[in-house]
Write a structure and sequence with these properties.
The protein has 449 residues and is mainly α. The chain folds into 3 domains: 96 residues, Endolytic murein transglycosylase (Dna Ligase, domain 1, 2-Layer Sandwich); 102 residues, no CATH class; 168 residues, no CATH class. It contains 15 helices and 8 strands. Strands 1-2 form a two-stranded antiparallel sheet. A two-stranded antiparallel ribbon has the order 3-6. A two-stranded antiparallel ribbon has the order 4-5. Helix 5 crosses helix 6, helix 6 crosses helix 8 and helix 9 crosses helix 13. It starts with 66 loop residues before the first helix and ends with a helix.
Length: 449
């Protein structure tokens, strides 16, 4: 039997007959595909990729902060700083800090211990570290060997040298500290020296004036103060009572009990020289000015010190005095100072230099009529023109500066008078200034006098 092959890919009719077509009136139904079996697992979604711009630079990678390195650096810095400090302390102890400083005199009190001495040396600038010297003295075994007395040391010395100096037996010099208020007279200062057991008032005054006196050891002496510039410029005015008046600068001083009288006086003069060192260039040589020398400045300052109770009024009071002494006003043609602080007005409230001050008592002028005429001719400011023969007290620095620098506004406006309020009145201690005598009289009434 011959089999005819089907090359169409369709199954052949076994009977060899053509298949009968479907009925034309039936609507042809679409063939539904068989469902494709789904796998039991879900396929992974494809990864999404950002577009890459090959021109864009790749971001730098972030580095970790080197904490360990910082710790090492800080540690090394601390070690170096500590080493440097140790070296400084080593040099301090060994005296290897450089050149020695100027000499410093230190007085070690009787019974002072190592702690007190270390503090004293540090305050004097001899050592830089109080605690270091104290420890060194203790561990060196010399803390108990330190001796009282006066010793001269210098900064930069080794601790061994300092301890050696302090361990030497010295003569202890006792000191006395005395405060002298501004405006004290020379007599009052001399009396205060005597009250503190340092010397007699009469010997102190004689020495301060450059006259013959008896030293504390009984020897006769005449002090020479020509090494002071101001001393050489003090004029020998007729009727001057005390050459030293005005130049014994008031301050607080520490004196050795066993020192000489001349050294006591030099203590005052040294301070005066120091205070006025920057003022001498302010002195105006103008003949119309009442201040033509340092002596003029000291004399006027002594009146300012007595008349002005407060530093804030010094320059204004000075202006009134300048106007009286320099004015071209015919009413002031005599140029009198007219200060109750030095006059023949016997008013106990005025602290009058000629009437009721320590100076007057010392000179014996305690009764009316006892003041010699030659003294009145030299010091009575209501009688004489210009400044008196000498100062009437020892002024402080502010009063001296005011004498050289009066209030310019009060000078220009022409103030001549001033009065302070009565302590028992309505205006105690208040200052009233006036240009005319009538204004001044009204102020006096208002001030309660």
């Amino acid at each position: 039997m011959r089999i005819q092959r089907n090359t169409s890919g369709q199954p052949s009719n076994p009977a060899g007959r053509t298949p009968r077509p479907a009925a034309q009136n039936k609507e042809q139904q679409p063939v539904q595909p068989k469902p494709v079996p789904q796998p039991d697992f879900e396929p992974e979604e494809p990864e999404e990729y950002e577009e890459y711009d090959d021109e864009e630079e790749e971001a730098p990678r972030r580095r970790r902060f080197p904490i360990a390195l910082i710790i090492v650096v800080v540690f090394l810095a601390l070690v170096v700083a500590a080493g440097w400090q140790v070296l400084q302390l080593y040099n301090e102890v060994g005296g290897r800090t450089g050149t020695l400083g100027s000499e410093v005199t230190v007085t070690i009190e009787e019974g002072a211990n190592a702690n007190q001495i270390a503090r004293q040396l540090a305050e004097a600038g001899v050592v830089q570290h109080e605690w270091l010297f104290r420890m060194y003295a203790q561990y060196s075994g010399k803390a108990s060997q330190l001796q009282p007395g006066e010793v001269t040391l210098r900064s930069g010395m080794s601790y061994n040298d300092i301890l050696q100096q302090l361990s030497q037996q010295r003569v202890f010099r006792k000191t006395v500290t005395v405060t002298f208020p501004e405006g004290y007279t020379a007599v009052a200062i001399a009396q205060l020296m005597e009250q503190n057991g340092l010397c007699t008032a009469s010997d102190f005054l004689a020495c301060a004036n450059g006259d013959a006196y008896t030293e504390k050891d009984g020897s006769q002496a005449v002090a020479d103060f020509s090494d002071y510039d101001f001393w050489n410029q003090i004029p020998d005015k007729e009727g001057r009572l005390l050459k030293c008046e005005g130049y014994l600068f008031p301050d607080t001083y520490e004196f050795f009990e066993d020192d000489t009288i001349q050294n006591y006086v030099r203590t005052f003069y040294n301070q005066f020289q120091k205070v006025i060192s920057g003022m001498t260039d302010q002195i105006d040589a103008n003949p119309d000015d009442c201040i033509n020398s340092i002596d003029d400045a000291v004399i006027l300052a002594s009146f300012i010190q007595e008349e002005a109770g407060m530093e804030s009024e010094d320059a204004k009071v000075s202006a009134c005095f300048h106007n009286r002494l320099e004015s071209t006003d015919p009413q002031w043609s005599d140029h009198r100072l007219e200060s109750n602080a030095s006059s023949y007005i016997t008013n106990d409230a005025d602290n009058n230099y000629l009437w009721n001050s320590p100076m007057a008592e010392y000179m014996g002028w305690v009764e009316a009529g006892a003041i010699p005429n030659e003294v009145l001719a030299a010091y009575d400011t209501y009688r004489i023109s210009g400044l008196p023969a000498g100062a009437i007290s020892n002024p402080g620095k502010a009063a001296i500066e005011a004498a050289l620098n009066p209030d310019q506004e009060y000078i220009d406006e022409g103030y001549y008078f001033f009065v302070t309020g009565n302590p028992n009145g309505d205006y105690p201690g208040e200052y009233f200034y006036a240009k005319t005598a009538d204004e001044h009289a009204a102020n006096v009434a208002k001030a309660g006098w």
